[in-house]
Write a structure and sequence with these properties.
Elements (H helix, E strand, L loop, with lengths): L2 H10 L8 H19 L8 H12 L5 H18 L6 H19 L3
Helix pairs in contact: 2-5, 4-5
Length: 110
């Protein structure tokens, strides 16, 4: 397990505290900012456009950026529900972030 993911899992499992919706939103925003600095740009995660363009070039399809985020969101939901008796913080937090990125892409017409 990578140190980044281990830190995230430890932060969610401290005590018996259940994170509420506003906390989850803040956590997802923090993760997006961290990933943006680590992988992409200081303003946050913005690699989907490049990934979708590469996918479309290889497959000849016309996937949009918003559809790329939707696909990742569905992947995280599928992982969460694969074992519904166990909460997967990573999947839940990423799903929130992907939802926000999908909404942004839709609003921008991507």
């Amino acid at each position: 397990m990578g140190s980044h993911r281990a830190r995230r899992l430890l932060s969610v499992r401290q005590g018996d505290h259940v994170m509420r919706a506003p906390e989850l939103l803040h956590k997802a925003a923090s993760i997006m900012e961290e990933r943006g600095k680590e992988y992409d740009k200081p303003e946050g995660e913005r690699s989907m456009g490049r990934a979708v363009r590469a996918f479309n070039a290889i497959t000849g399809r016309g996937l949009s950026e918003a559809e790329g985020w939707l696909l990742l969101q569905i992947l995280k939901d599928a992982r969460q529900w694969q074992n519904p008796g166990r909460y997967h913080a990573d999947s839940a937090e990423d799903c929130i972030a992907y939802s926000a990125l999908k909404a942004e892409a839709l609003a921008e017409g991507n």
